[in-house]
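#dry-run=false #mode=assembly
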Amino acid sequence: MTTAPDYVQPVIGWRTWSAVVRDNETRLSSVIQRSLWPRGAPLFASCRCARWSIWPWSRNRHDAPALDCGCGIYAASLNVVRRYLPAVLADSVLVRVIGRVALWGVVYEHDQGWRASAAYPKSLFVPVSDLRAVNAERIVSDLAAYGVPVRAVHASSPRAVIDEVVAIVARQEVVEGYG
Amino acid sequence: MELGSVKRVYTIEPLEDPVPTSEPRQQPESSQEESRAPVEQSIPRT
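#status=ok
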C-alpha cells in the first residue's frame, strides 16, 4: 500500500555551499558534510552517524532525515542564513555559494528551517569580491551546469551580499511574474 | 546551522521535477556515495 504525499510542491529554502573542484570543474559541496551535489540529479540524504560512531550499539542505520538524529539536507529561511553568513564568509578561506534550494521527499520542518531527504539547487549566488576575475568567471560558468540561474554578487560585506541577493531575487520574481 | 525544534513532518512528491530538464539526467547520487569519491579540491578565495 502506498501513502499519498502531503504536498506536491517542494519547499524552497536558503543555504550555503562550498565551491570545490572535481574533475577540473567547479561543483557544489555541502559545507559541513562535504557531500558533492550532483548536476542534473537530486542529492539524496543518507545518515553518516552510523559510520562515525565507534560504539557498535549506536551504529543503527536509518533513513535520513530522522527525528532523533541531525541528518538530512538542511535549508533555512533567508533571515537565518543572513545571521550565519558573516561567520560563514569570515571563517573560511574557501569560496562560498549562497542559494535557494528545493527540498522534497520526507521533510522535517523546524522552527527555523527544514531537513529533507532530497534536494536540488534552484538558484545560485557567488560572492566574487574576494576572487580574481578569471576565477569568478570560471566558477559562475561551471556552476551553470546545474541548469539553474547563477549570478555573481559583487558586494563585499556579508550584509551587503545578502542585500544584493535579495534585490536580484526580487527582480527575478518581478520578471517571472510578468513573464 | 541550528534549526530549532521539529514542528512537523510531511512528505512531498513534486508534480513537476525540481531538477531542470535541460541537463541530461544523471544517476542519482547519495551523499554517502559521494563521501567515497576521492578527487575533490577546495577552491581558496584568492
